[in-house]
Design goal:
By secondary structure, the chain is of the alpha/beta class. Helix content is 51%, strand content 15%. Pfam families: ECH_1.
C-alpha cells in the first residue's frame, strides 16, 4: 500500500495502525480544503488494504481541530456561492468516507474540538477525550450553519442535544462530552489519554480485521436498511465469515487455546 504525500498531515504506520496527525498547529489544525483533500486521499489509499486495521486521528501541538479554515472561506468569497457550496460539500464527503472506512477509526480529542473537528469526532468509532478539551459548534455565532456536520451530530448525540448545542454555540469540556455520549472516554491528563489509546488499540488487535470491517458495515446499515432484507444479507455475511479464512483460524485458535494469527 502506498500512502499519498501530504503537506497538512503527518502519517506514521506501525503495527497495523495508521496514525494520522492534523498538522497545521499555527491555525490550531483548522480544516483547510487542502487538508480535506489529503484526508480523503489517505482514506482512499487504505480502503482496500489489509495492513491497516485502525486509523488514529489526532491533532498536533495539543489541539485536535478548531473548525474550518477562515482563509479558504475568504478565498471562496470572491468566487461566489458556488465556491462556498463546493468547499462545504467537500467536507461532507470527507465525513461520509471516514465514517464508512472499513478500519476502526479512533479520534483522540484534545484542546479545540470545534466545528469541523466536532464533526470528525462524531464519525469516529471510538473517541477518547482529554477532560480539558473544549468542544463546540460555533457556526451560528459566526452567522453561518454547521451544514455538513449537523446530520452526524444528530446521529451521535440525538436531536434534542444537537439542537441545544447548535442553537446556542455553547462550549463544553470532555466530561460533558462523555455525559452526552459524544465520546467514550474522558481522561484526566495526557498520560491517561495515551494509556487509554494504547489499551484500545490492543483490544482492536484482538479482533479479526475482516470481521471488524463487515461488522462495522452491518452496524451502519441499521440506520438505512429495512430490517428483513438486512437480516437476510447479515445471514449470508455470517455464513461467509464462518466458512472463510478468519472463521477457520478463529475456531482453530480457540480449540488449540492460542491467540489467532491477527492477535499475535
Amino acid at each position: 500500500m502506498s500512502l499519498p504525500a501530504c503537506e497538512t498531515l503527518l502519517l506514521e504506520q506501525a503495527g497495523g495502525v495508521l496514525h494520522v496527525t492534523l498538522n497545521r498547529p499555527d491555525a490550531r489544525n483548522a480544516m483547510s480544503l487542502a487538508m480535506v483533500g489529503e484526508l480523503r486521499s489517505v482514506l482512499a489509499a487504505v480502503r482496500q488494504g489489509s495492513d491497516v486495521r485502525a486509523l488514529v486521528l489526532r491533532g498536533a501541538d495539543g489541539h485536535f481541530c478548531a473548525g474550518g479554515d477562515i482563509k479558504d472561506m475568504a478565498s471562496a468569497r470572491a468566487a461566489g456561492a458556488d465556491a462556498y457550496r463546493e468547499l462545504n460539500r467537500a467536507f461532507g464527503s470527507l465525513l461520509e468516507e471516514a465514517q464508512a472506512a472499513p478500519q476502526v477509526v479512533i479520534a483522540v480529542l484534545e484542546g479545540a474540538v470545534l466545528g469541523g473537528g466536532f464533526g470528525l469526532a462524531c464519525i469516529s468509532d471510538i473517541a477518547i477525550a482529554h477532560q480539558g478539551a473544549q468542544f463546540g459548534l460555533p457556526e451560528t455565532g459566526l452567522g453561518i450553519l454547521p451544514a455538513q456536520i449537523a446530520p452526524f451530530v444528530v446521529k451521535r448525540i440525538g436531536l434534542t442535544q444537537a439542537r441545544r448545542l447548535a442553537l446556542t454555540a455553547a462550549r463544553f469540556d470532555g466530561n460533558e462530552a462523555l455525559r452526552l455520549g459524544l465520546v467514550h472516554f474522558a481522561e484526566a491528563d495526557d498520560a491517561a489519554v495515551d494509556a487509554r489509546l494504547g489499551a484500545t488499540l490492543e483490544q482492536v488487535r484482538r479482533c479479526a480485521p475482516g470481521a471488524n470491517a463487515r461488522t462495522k458495515a452491518l452496524l451502519l446499515a441499521t440506520e438505512e436498511r429495512e430490517l428483513g432484507p438486512l437480516l437476510d444479507d447479515a445471514a449470508a455475511w455470517f455464513a461467509d465469515a464462518v466458512t472463510g479464512a478468519e472463521g477457520a483460524e478463529g475456531t482453530m485458535a480457540f480449540v488449540q487455546k492460542r491467540k489467532p494469527t491477527w492477535a499475535q
